[in-house]
Amino acid sequence: MFIKDKDKTMKIARTIEELDAFREKLGEGTLAYVPTMGALHDGHLSLVRLARKKCDYVAVSIFVNPTQFAPDEDFNSYPRTEKEDAKKLEAEGVDILFLPTENVIYPEGKDLDIKAGNVAEGLETTFRPAFFDGVVNVVNRLFNAVKPDIAVFGEKDFQQLQVITQMVENESIPIKIIGAPTARDENGLALSSRNLYLSEDELVIARKLNIALREAAKTGDLEATGKALLDYGFDKIDYVETRWNRVLGAAWLGKTRLIDNIAIDEKVAAAAQ
Ligand code: PAF
Predict the structure, then answer these.
(1) Atom 2 of ligand 1: nearest residue by CA position
(2) Are the CB atoms for 267 and 250 separated by under 8 Å?
(3) For the sheet containing 176-180, what is the strand order?
(4) For residue 154, is pLDDT > 50?
């Protein structure tokens, strides 16, 4: 539906009541939603652009969700850049920015109501056992608050995209989930808020992750890829595995954990059958 004379200013909602009021003003226009944890980069903005193509209106949320961080992870130090983020989103023509506090999302404490389904098994869960339960709970609560028609998630977090798609099916949530291609820098490094943690030297090594996974996607030799990553200078490899016709990898550089995934060459996939 084409909305004439659309109000161009971005509305900022901090409570469910404010969000409901803005949501109501959209009338019958369709709403696309991009949930984020902020520290926005071009990868997030590419999700927002895709969302804009799909619906009349776009909502974005910024919420650093405590329940998806383990006690030894970077919840406290996670970059929080709300003002800069809001400017970027306004420039992208976002209609509603939802900035809830912890009390708005978890008014009765941080007990988790639902569990991630079986696609959460292995890969990330082997190393971050509580991560996807935290993700599905916050996304479910955010979906209930924002009530979008569609929601856009990056393919960089490929397992997360599968877990959320399964959660929406399991919970019969009437929202279409759309995956957006991974945005990369000129060297192929997948854009991530955590790249902000990397020193110049670490960035040089980080850029090898996509190169190694591309090689694995061509050759199918996952063991050689793990070794190559260590040779490049990664400190620890959590996994290099194939699933969903992709090679997925997670590796550490100092205190920073990077993930990425690459679609497998069709010929390699056919040969492996
Ligand atoms: O991918 C992220 O940024 C987060 O996991 C998400 C989906 C916003 C939930 O907190």
Answers:
(1) 36
(2) no
(3) 11-13, 96-98, 57-62, 31-36, 150-154, 176-180
(4) yes
- Domains of the chain in start order, with CATH, are 11-180 (3.40.50.620), 193-272 (3.30.1300.10)
Residues 96-148 have pLDDT tens digits of: 999 999 999 999 999 999 999 999 999 999 999 999 999 999 999 999 999 99
Could you give the CA distance from residue 113 to residue 136 in angstroms, rounded to a whole number? Answer: 9
Evaluate if residue 270 carries a pLDDT over 50: yes
Tokens encoding 120? 């959460």
Q: Cα–Cα distance between 184 and 156 in angstroms, integer?
A: 10
Q: Write the DSSP symbol of residue 266.
A: H
Mutation probe of ligand 1 site: the residue of 63, 69, 157, 175 with most atoms within 8 A of C-beta:
157
Catalytic residues, by residue number, are 44
43 close to ligand 1 (CB < 6 Angstrom): no
Ligand 1 centroid distance, CA of 233 (Å) = 28
- Ligand 1 mean position to 224 CA, how many Å? 31
